[in-house]
Amino acid sequence: MLGVSRNRSDSRLIMLSTTRESDRRRGAVSNHAVMAIIGLLVLVSLGVLLSQMGQVKPAKSAGGDEKATTSLTFFCAAGIRKPVEAVAKRYLEEYGVQVNLDYGGSNTLLSRIDTAKTGDLYLAADESYINSARKKGLVAESLSLARMKPVIAVADGNPKNITRIEDLLREDVRTVLGNPDQAAVGKRTRKLLKASGHWTKLEAMVRQTGTFQPTVPEVANTVKIGGADAAVIWNTTTKIVEGIEAIEVPELDKGEVLVTVGVLTSAANPTESLKFARYLAASDRGLKEFRKFGFTPVEGDKWSETPELTFFLRIGQPPGG
Predict the structure, then answer these.
(1) Chain centroid to CA 56: how far?
(2) Which pLDDT belongs to residue 16?
(3) Domains contained in the chain, CATH given
(4) Cα 125 to the center of its chain, rounded Å
């Protein structure tokens, strides 16, 4: 009898243990199922959000023609005008979005954005301005576009035979520079020539016989019309402005900059603003125009209205795994 009683007790213990193990496994499976459902809902929500980025389409006018239904305010460094104008024109034709371009020196534009707290996008000739804007809380997102570097610019044929930085210090050479407090090229020139030991004397000579200009196109045009014998501008500008040529020197070769566009925190339509920034940075859209105008584009992705994102969702170990 004692042996039988012991066996029944053992059976009950085994059954209780088995039941608890079964409950534990069912609970684990249930938890994994819940997490899988939550993960699926997150992915679906993200898919809907991303698909909306490509749904802004031009409306039809009374005559049946497409017209712009959305407009963006774009603050653009003056030296980057040509490629951005071309991209904005194509974007209007393709999506019916009017991009209103406002040009100026990179620092001049940053000051205006900081004061007014308005606008949708800001393109600077030098990434450092975008970094400053981000620190001020003015930029939410940024994309790199292209590279360029400063060079000496002279009239075609180089009539003054300028071949090195020291030639800009000659008494018979009138030099024009970008204003360091307004134009990115001026700020970069000052930094590089301070490092090489040429800035103090050159600045004094420019104030006496030359001039400082607020934007790089104005610097280039001063040489083009004969108002100066030499200038320091971007190598890309010498390819855009006719009548001038570039002289590369080691003191300036180190000054490569990264042209960058930022979506402003003040953007009235951040989704459409980011879409145009992505279009500008697409290898088969905006970057093609940058290459045409002599810029060195970054390696960008091909254009897609809805960006493709890859998610790696790890729910957890399967029961017993």
Answers:
(1) 22
(2) 39
(3) 59-147+258-297 (3.40.190.10), 150-253 (3.40.190.10)
(4) 10
